Amino acid sequence: MNIYFKTKKLQKACSKTKETIKKYGPKKAVKIQQRLMELKAATCLEDISKVPPSRCHLLSGNRKGQLSVDFDHPYRQLFIPADDPVPVTEAGGLDWAMVKEIEIIDIVDTH
What we know:
Blueprint: E1 2-5, H1 8-15, H2 17-24, H3 26-41, E2 57-58, E3 67-72, E4 75-81, E5 101-109
Parallel strand pairs: 1-5
Antiparallel strand pairs: 2-3, 3-4, 4-5
C-alpha cells in the first residue's frame, strides 16, 4: 500500500527511527514503525487486521471518515484513504479491498 503523510514533520517523526524515539519515546517508536511496516506490506486496507493488536477501524463523531490503528494505548495512528476518488461499496460504505493508498494525518490519544 502507498503511504503518504499530512506533513513533512510527521513523515520525519514516523520514518526515521532516531526521530521517532525522540518524539514519542522508545516504546511508542517501536509500535509506530511496526504499524507502518504492516501498512506498507499490505496490498489494500482489507489486509490490515480489524482485531487487536492493530485493530484497524473507522472512527466516528468529529473524526468521521478517518481510520486508526492502535499501537500503545491510548495512542492511535490516524489516517484517511488517499485514493482519488475514495472507493465505496454499492451500499455507500468504504470499500476496504479497494483502498490502496492512505495518508497518515496524526498520532494522537483519541480518548
